[in-house]
């Protein structure tokens, strides 16, 4: 009989500062070699459940636990702090939160040092895991110079170098381009078959996994299990197709813009313009320069050459915490003072922030943090808004609300530049697509000319939206 890895009986969890429980009466077990996905609305406690499985909670917080958790047949409370973590490896939703060393090689070596691995074993183990994860060329790279997607792959390599029995994944595809995400799932499939690794993942992008998972647990808004059943492959979210609201007036103009940092050219000179009311998707492989472009447009990265002309740019970064300045969600959204109370209320309601309006922005889920940052920038009413991966961590309802808000604001004359790897979201919204590869602008294309161009998609690690035939009809 397969070994029982996890066993939870009537488990509940509450943070001391909260009146309501984050998780309520959770009971399930996981056997060796299972592939389990945990799904549910943003903020329902999925990540909290993972952190209870790896003993991060309650060992590293003041959370209150009722019920029983058994790990490998032994009560979780009987493990010393950190004892279980060489058997249960975790890849967090925000990879930056788990890095300690400057370079990829040093981070991997640091992981092995914590496991007291013999010095003679380190070099071959590092080489092996870098080859397996396709990261050999980044061995000596500074981690903070890498894209979000590359950081995610480095974090996965750090988990796998521990040779764990269990791999916990918190939205591992959220920062990966479509091609790399497909490769990641195929590689994980092969790895799991070879090692009988037990995999538990939290995920919103279920359509990207095909038939990988054998079982799915859905959590409800109350933090209880709604369903526990065999996994059913998903179709992507179906968005309506918006009508273009482009105007003749130019909202953003760049000329020969380039970025070089420490003698490394991150962005080659590029020029393009964006019209008022236009929605532009910025797409390309992980590490191609998409976020660098966004940061240079809004002045976070100093431009080495060129100029940017705009009436005002707002920016929602990939890590939304960088924006937060206040003590509550409501204060954060209202911070700019540019919107009326009625407008703020509508915005909070649309993005499902009313129920957490008094919560501290750092104490909510990753998906909720992203929605707070988006709401704050929309409330600021900047003429041009840059969004870096706004769909990450969002459930279906939140994605549809975000689509509606962008569509509405574009009709009112706001201009959007959106970095996203969600091709269905991109295809539903985009008037045009900026394609970037290796720090160079391939070009700005009408969106309808991109989705059927297989060569162009392949060159930029993109996959055609699954609704591409329907899109062709809407463009006809």
Task: Describe the secondary structure blueprint for this structure.
Blueprint: E1 4-14, E2 23-31, E3 35-39, H1 46-53, H2 56-59, E4 64-71, E5 74-75, E6 88-91, H3 104-114, H4 119-132, H5 148-160, E7 166-170, H6 178-195, E8 198-202, E9 215-219, E10 225-230, E11 250-261, E12 264-275, E13 279-283, H7 290-297, E14 305-310, E15 313-316, H8 329-334, H9 341-350, H10 366-380, E16 384-388, H11 396-411, E17 415-419, H12 423-429, E18 432-437, E19 440-446, H13 454-459, H14 468-475
Parallel strand pairs: 3-8, 3-9, 6-7, 7-8, 13-17, 13-18, 15-16, 16-17
Antiparallel strand pairs: 1-2, 1-4, 4-5, 9-10, 11-12, 11-14, 18-19
Helix pairs in contact: 3-4, 3-5, 9-10
Question: How is this structure best described in words?
Answer:
The chain is an alpha/beta fold and 476 residues long. The protein has 14 helices and 19 strands. A hairpin with an 8-residue loop joins strand 1 and strand 2. Helix 3 crosses helix 4 and helix 9 runs antiparallel to helix 10. The protein is globular, with a radius of gyration of 22 Å.
Q: How many individual helices?
A: 14
Beta-strand content bin = 25-35%
Biggest pleated sheet: 6 strands, mixed
Helix content: 25-40%
* Rounded Rg: 22 Å
Q: Distance between the terminal alpha carbons, to the nearest Å?
A: 58 Å
What global shape is seen?
A: globular
Uncertain spans, ≥5 residues at pLDDT below 50?
Answer: 469-476
Number of strands: 19
> Strand arrangement, largest sheet?
6-7-8-3-9-10
- Output mean pLDDT: 91
Helix/strand class: alpha/beta
Describe, in short, the structure shown:
One of its GO terms (molecular function) is ATP binding. With 476 residues, this protein is α/β, with parallel strands linked by helices.
């Amino acid at each position: 009989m397969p070994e029982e890895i996890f066993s939870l009986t009537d488990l509940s969890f509450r943070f001391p500062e909260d009146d309501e429980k984050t998780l309520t009466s959770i009971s399930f077990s996981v056997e060796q070699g299972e592939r389990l996905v945990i799904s549910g609305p943003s903020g329902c406690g999925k990540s909290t459940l993972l952190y209870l499985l790896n003993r991060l909670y309650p060992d590293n917080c003041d959370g209150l636990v009722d019920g029983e958790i058994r790990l490998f047949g032994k009560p979780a409370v009987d493990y010393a702090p950190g004892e279980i973590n060489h058997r249960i490896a975790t890849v967090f939703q925000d990879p930056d939160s788990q890095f300690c060393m400057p370079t990829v090689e040093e981070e991997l070596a640091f992981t092995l040092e914590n496991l007291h691995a013999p010095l003679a074993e380190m070099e071959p183990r590092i080489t092996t895991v870098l080859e397996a994860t396709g990261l050999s060329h980044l061995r000596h790279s500074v981690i903070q110079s890498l894209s979000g997607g590359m950081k995610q792959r480095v974090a996965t390599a750090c988990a796998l170098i521990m040779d764990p029995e269990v791999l916990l994944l918190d939205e591992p595809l959220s920062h990966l381009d479509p091609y790399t995400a497909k490769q990641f799932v195929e590689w994980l499939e092969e790895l799991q078959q070879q090692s009988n690794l037990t995999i538990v993942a939290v995920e919103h992008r279920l359509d990207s996994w095909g038939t990988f998972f054998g079982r799915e647990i859905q959590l409800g808004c109350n933090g209880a299990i709604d369903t526990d059943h065999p996994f059913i492959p998903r179709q992507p979210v179906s968005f309506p197709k918006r009508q273009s609201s482009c105007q003749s007036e130019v909202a953003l103009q760049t000329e020969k813009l380039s970025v070089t940092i420490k003698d490394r050219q991150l962005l080659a000179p590029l020029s393009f313009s964006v019209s008022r009311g236009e929605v532009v998707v910025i797409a390309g492989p992980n590490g191609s320069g998409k976020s660098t472009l966004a940061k240079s447009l809004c002045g976070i990265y100093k431009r080495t050459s060129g100029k940017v002309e705009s009436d005002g740019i707002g920016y929602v970064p990939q890590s939304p915490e960088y924006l937060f300045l206040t003590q509550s969600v409501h204060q954060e959204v209202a911070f700019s003072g540019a919107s009326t109370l009625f407008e703020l209320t509508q915005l909070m309601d649309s993005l499902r922030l009313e129920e957490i309006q008094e919560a501290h922005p750092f104490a909510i889920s990753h998906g909720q943090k992203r929605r707070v940052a988006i709401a704050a920038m929309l409330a600021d009413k900047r003429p041009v808004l840059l969004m870096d991966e706004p769909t990450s961590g969002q459930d279906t309802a939140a994605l549809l609300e975000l689509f509606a808000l962008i569509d509405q604001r574009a009709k009112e004359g706001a201009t959007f530049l959106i970095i996203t790897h969600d091709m269905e979201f991109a295809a539903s919204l985009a008037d045009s697509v900026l394609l970037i590869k290796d720090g160079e602008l391939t070009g700005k294309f009408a969106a309808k000319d991109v989705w059927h161009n297989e060569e162009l998609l392949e060159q930029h690690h993109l996959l055609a939206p699954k609704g591409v035939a329907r899109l062709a009809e809407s463009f006809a």
